[in-house]
Specification:
The complex is a heterodimer of chains A (252) and B (226).
Chain A (H helix, E strand, L loop, with lengths): L1 E10 L2 E11 L4 E5 L6 H8 L7 E6 L2 E5 L7 H8 L2 E4 L11 H11 L5 H14 L15 H13 L5 E5 L7 H16 L4 E4 L3 H7 L2 E6 L2 E7 H6 L4 H16 L1
Parallel strand pairs in A: 3-8, 3-9, 6-7, 7-8
Antiparallel strand pairs in A: 1-2, 1-4, 4-5, 9-10
Chain B lengths: L2 H45 L2 H16 L2 H11 L9 H27 L2 H9 L4 H31 L11 H12 L2 H30 L11
Helix pairs in contact in B: 1-2, 1-4, 1-7, 1-8, 2-4, 3-4, 4-6, 5-6, 6-8, 7-8
The chains are: A alpha/beta (252), B mainly alpha (226).
Chain lengths: 252, 226
């Protein structure tokens, strides 16, 4: 179980999250949707503590950390929690000075102290899974955006995290390249990988997410199963947002 | 053989010897130590506590704001009055190290800051600590950007070591001066010494090109393109 309880996040005078509580069941895929600036990315980044919540509790499995203003969480605690997670970024953020394979092995070798051999075997296994075993020795700069993102997924999965966090994983990609990333994520979902993603790609969210939370203005406006939120939104704000997305994709 | 050529050839041995025994060690040692000092100063400026940052800024301010020759004179001729007497070579080494440290700290600070924030986040996301992220992710990428400006500094240093002649270090330029004192042929000797410095700089420029090519092997852009 991954649990966020009463998460507040303040950047100076701006309160980006105004008390958000959510639970994610292991093996489930959840999507955080909503307009830009609504807080979905910040909330996602609070799960692996790339953003430190101003207050609230983050729990991943047996590890939990409670934040309150003026209290330092401590590096060790943050890292212990963070190591339960893997993260996929909007702009991939592969290490450009490492090959595809080395991107996957970097954390295993540097952080977990695996032997080079064991890490390489794991990397090849994961690159096969994302369909890029033949690009193991390629530099990121020579890969397409879709390929880079698939390597990034392999990198994030390398230490078998409890949860895979995806921050707008398809937003930097054209529809064709996005499709290959969606396919990889969909197959991970079928295998029971726990995922939480922030996205406004409805195709992605409706295809693989079981649960959806709609965030706007730092609050959860609506949540439920993907089907109920997407097909029968209850709130006016959700309806308007979904309608604008549908109109945008219809125009393409 | 014309006399001037004979003189040049006769002088070449002692000059090269001086370059090998003083100019090269002084350059390499002060650059190595200065780079370490520059890295430490840059890290303090970027990540240190406020009082340390103030110290680092003061150091860079003083060194960059005063002539290198004056600094060398202060260390070699000035400090004995304060009870600190140094041999010529250590005095020069300290002077050049402090100088290189100040200048390279600005370069290193800039190249570390130029690595995109997302790379820190990527490193953290795979579980790295700050130190691991710095060592494995940030510095290797910063190093590539740093090669051209650091090469500038290094090549300047090779030539600036001639200032050590003024504090009695028997390096390349001082050796030429000594030969001039005996032969009264300043034009020939100083042309020769200029050519030797030019040759040294040319070799270093070639090394820079190779180093850049090696560091650029992972792609022509500073980051994997989105």
């Amino acid at each position: 179980m991954i649990e966020l309880r009463d998460i507040h996040k303040r950047f100076g005078d701006l309160e980006v999250l105004k008390g958000v509580s959510l639970q994610f069941v292991e093996g489930s895929v959840s999507a955080l949707v909503g307009p830009s600036g609504g807080g979905k990315s910040t909330l996602l980044r609070c799960i692996n503590l790339l953003e430190t919540p101003t207050s609230g509790t983050v729990r991943i499995g047996d590890e939990a950390l409670t934040f309150s203003p003026g209290l330092k969480a401590g590096w060790k605690n943050i890292q212990r929690l963070r190591r339960q997670t893997g993260m996929v970024f909007q702009n991939f953020q592969l290490f450009p000075h490492r090959t595809a394979k080395e991107n996957v092995t970097e954390g295993l070798v540097t952080v977990l102290g695996w032997s080079r051999e064991k890490a390489n075997a794991r990397a090849i296994e994961l690159l096969e899974k994302v369909g890029l075993a033949h690009k193991a020795d390629a530099w990121p700069s020579t890969l397409s955006g879709g390929q880079q993102q698939r390597v990034a997924i392999a990198r994030a999965l390398a230490p078998s995290p409890r949860v895979l966090l995806c921050d707008e994983p398809t937003s930097a990609l054209d529809p064709e390249l996005a499709e290959e990333v969606v396919e990889v994520l969909a197959s991970l979902a079928r295998e029971g990988t726990t995922m939480v993603m922030a996205t406004h790609d409805l195709r992605l969210a409706s295809r693989i997410a079981g649960e959806v939370a709609f965030l706007d203005g730092g609050l959860i406006v609506e949540q439920g199963t993907a089907r109920s939120v997407f097909d029968q939104p209850q709130r006016e704000r959700t309806k308007r947002f979904l309608a604008s997305l549908a109109a945008a994709s219809g125009a393409n | 053989m014309p006399d001037w050529l004979q003189l040049m050839l006769n002088s070449l041995g002692p000059l090269i010897w001086a370059a090998f025994t003083f100019t090269a060690p002084l350059t390499l040692l002060s650059f190595g130590l200065g780079l370490a000092l520059g890295l430490a100063t840059a890290l303090v400026r970027l990540f240190g506590a406020a009082p340390l940052v103030a110290v680092a800024r003061f150091y860079v301010w003083v060194i960059r704001g005063t002539p290198l020759l004056v600094q060398l004179f202060l260390i070699f001729y000035g400090l004995p009055s304060a009870g600190i007497t140094l041999d010529a070579f250590p005095a020069a080494l300290i002077g050049f190290t402090l100088n290189i440290g100040a200048y390279t700290s600005e370069i290193i600070r800039a190249v570390i800051a130029s690595v995109p924030r997302g790379q820190w986040e990527a490193a953290y996301s795979v579980g790295m600590s700050w130190a691991q992220a710095m060592r494995k992710t940030i510095l290797p990428q910063a190093a590539r950007t740093a090669v051209p400006p650091l090469s500038n500094t290094f090549i300047s240093l090779v030539k600036d070591t001639s200032l050590a002649a003024a504090i009695t270090v028997p390096e390349l330029f001082q050796s030429a001066q000594r030969i001039v004192a005996v032969t009264y042929e300043p034009l020939i000797l100083y042309v020769e010494v200029a050519l030797i410095y030019l040759a040294l700089s040319s070799v270093l420029s070639a090394v820079q090109v190779r180093l850049e090519r090696r560091l650029n092997r992972y792609g022509g852009f500073l980051e994997a393109r989105a």
